[in-house]
Structure formats: structure tokens, C-alpha cells
Amino acid sequence: MANQATAVAYAALLLAGSKTPLTVENVEKLTKKAGVNVPSQLATQFVRAFEGKDIISLLSVGGGSSSAPAAQPAQAAAKPTEAPKAAEKPKDPEPEEDVDMGGLFD
């Protein structure tokens, strides 16, 4: 089932990338060419879930999670950095109270 769902997802991405309409027939055609037998119910549910939505824009929302740091101008790099401020002293944990569990763990 996981391979079938993955195949349907990849088919939807391929269709969206090629500006081909996301239809059950197109999804089934692509998955069949990939050699994955997908039940038409799965393809139908996937198509209905994304009906009227732009899959590419759904994937590109947020965009701020790249692993590389943003490039900084040379002027900003020349400024000396301030030393990090000393962190607040952590509070001592409060002592735990002895709770009667009704003899459950006696």
C-alpha cells in the first residue's frame, strides 16, 4: 500500500510539473507505466483531495527552511560581533510531591 500511495503522489507531482490536468485517468496511466498497480479508489481519493489546488504552490509555501545560511553583505561581515550575553541562572526544580496512587504501584 505504501508503494501505491507513493506512486500516486509522484504521478501527481509529475502531472503538476508538466501542467497536465490531475485526473484519475492520468494518474492511473502514469502509475501503470511505472509498473505499479494502483486501485482506482486510491487514485480517486488522491485526485479529490487535491482538486482545485495547485500542488506546486502547496510545496513552495514557507520556503524559509533551507539548510544553508543566507549570504550576508561584505559590510555586515566586517562588523565585530558582540559576545553572547550570559544566560540566566536556571531555576532549581521544585521538589516533587508524594502523590497517593491508591496502592496501584505498591
From TrEMBL:
Entry GO MF terms: protein kinase activator activity; ribonucleoprotein complex binding; structural constituent of ribosome
GO biological process: cytoplasmic translation; translational elongation
GO cellular component, one term: cytosolic large ribosomal subunit
Span list, region Disordered: 62-106
Keywords linked to the UniProt accession: Ribonucleoprotein, Ribosomal protein
Composition bias, Low complexity: 66-84
InterPro entries: Ribosomal_P1/P2
Coiled-coil residue spans: none
Family recorded in the similarity comment: Belongs to the eukaryotic ribosomal protein P1/P2 family.
Protein name per Swiss-Prot or TrEMBL: 60S acidic ribosomal protein P2
Organism in which the protein naturally occurs: Paramecium primaurelia
